[in-house]
Amino acid sequence: MSHAAAELKMTTAPAPRTRPNTGGRSSDALPAATLVQWLRDMMLIREFENRCAQAYQQAKIGGFCHLYTGQEAAAVGTIAATNPDDPIVTAYRDHGHALARGMDPGACMAEMFGKATGCAKGKGGSMHMFDKPHWLFGGHGIVGAQTALGTGLAFAARYEWEVLKRPLANPGVTGATPAKKKVCLTYLGDGALNQGVLHESMNLAGLWDIPVIYIVENNGYSMGTAIARGTTMAHDLTKKAEAYGMRGEIIDGFDVIDLYDAFKPLVDWCRENQKPAFVDLKTYRYLGHSMSDPQKYRTKDEVEQFKSKDSIDRMAHVLMNERKNKDSTPVLSEQAFTDLQTSIKEQVRHAMEFAENSPVPDASELHTDVYLNPMPNLSPTAEYRHGAKNPLL
Ligand SMILES: Cc1ncc(C[n+]2csc(CCOP(=O)(O)OP(=O)(O)O)c2C)c(N)n1
Ligand SMILES: [Mg+2]
After folding, report:
1. By alpha-carbon position, which residue is closest to atom 17 of ligand 1?
2. Ligand 1 centre from 114 Cα, in Å?
3. What is residue 170's predicted lDDT score, i.e. its pLDDT?
4. Quick one: which of 81, 117, 146, 151 is 20 to 30 A from 320 by CA?
5. 93 pocket-lining for ligand 1 (C-beta < 6 Å)
6. Are 359 and 116 in contact (CB under 8 A)?
7. What structural domains and CATH numbers belong to the chain?
8. Pairing between β-strand 221-222 and β-strand 225-226 as defined by DSSP bridges
9. Hey, which bits of 5-144 come out as E strands?
10. pTM of the entire predicted model
């Protein structure tokens, strides 16, 4: 076993376990249709990413491209535990979160293709999925930067509820009224764990009781560096939460139902008590860090080991064999599963066609949306004068 694999075993792979068949889990209260929807969401992400990989190889997608394949349960299981108007923010491996939050796959794919119909008008690309109506505040490429944004979003949410008693948000945004207790899910990779901004953010969150949940999607590697080679206490990251006075939990991210059952009570607690938390969410990416990663840092065996507990296969198995309707038939029949596969392929094919047939952004869009309400002297438009005094200073 390679050095990296040995460390990964220690830090990432929890022993596979069978879900205890006892009552009292949050998922027990959910209708079967919700569980089938989770499976569908994970399958949609997998198919979307497969088609992105093809389109990238055909040079239809340019720039950086980080696929979410293998990590699907992380976005689907955590987002399922939120309200639709809880803000979320993530890093650059963001297609999965966007789709799990409900972004139209056409808008997501068009963004990948750099087309004007994309969610960021084709100006952001793979790393910058934004969806204001679904309270997704990006997609960010600077490692760790989104942790400060997520902390700010959570602060704003608490400020609205507690101080202003009215929403700050655009009234057109889904669920903007009335002000209410929210939590902000802030996703980061394990490679962001040592960025200063995370520690400044966690310090303030702990100090001021900001309702943010930092979710480390711990796939064991930061690009090609195994976590234990670059991060202290990799075997127990919750110690970092302790240092900032917040709850910390380790959650298995391979079984979406287990994940939800562990995560939902934490979200509810953070919302009710308006407190922060930190989650070490164990997961694994099947593909390289990005499209140009030769993956010399891990063995094929290791990847296969993780694939053998694939969260989509697992969920399909549970719904087709373990979860039963009142009449003892499985909640997902073989035919229904096949139909699901067909409808997802169709949906993603439509998204591809939509992206391919959409126009590229007009050249006049080059300097728009750079700043919100740009000050004339700060805006790189016709009014810009080099060396002009910053009116804010
Ligand atoms: C501030 C900053 N430093 C370096 C980079 C280059 N970079 C991009 S991703 C990455 C690794 C991040 O680790 P993690 O999120 O665990 O990576 P993954 O699991 O996606 O490989 C680095 C160093 C960057 N984007 N931003
Ligand atoms: Mg990582």
Report:
1. 222
2. 22
3. 52
4. 81
5. yes
6. yes
7. 28-361 (3.40.50.970)
8. antiparallel
9. 88-89
10. 0.90
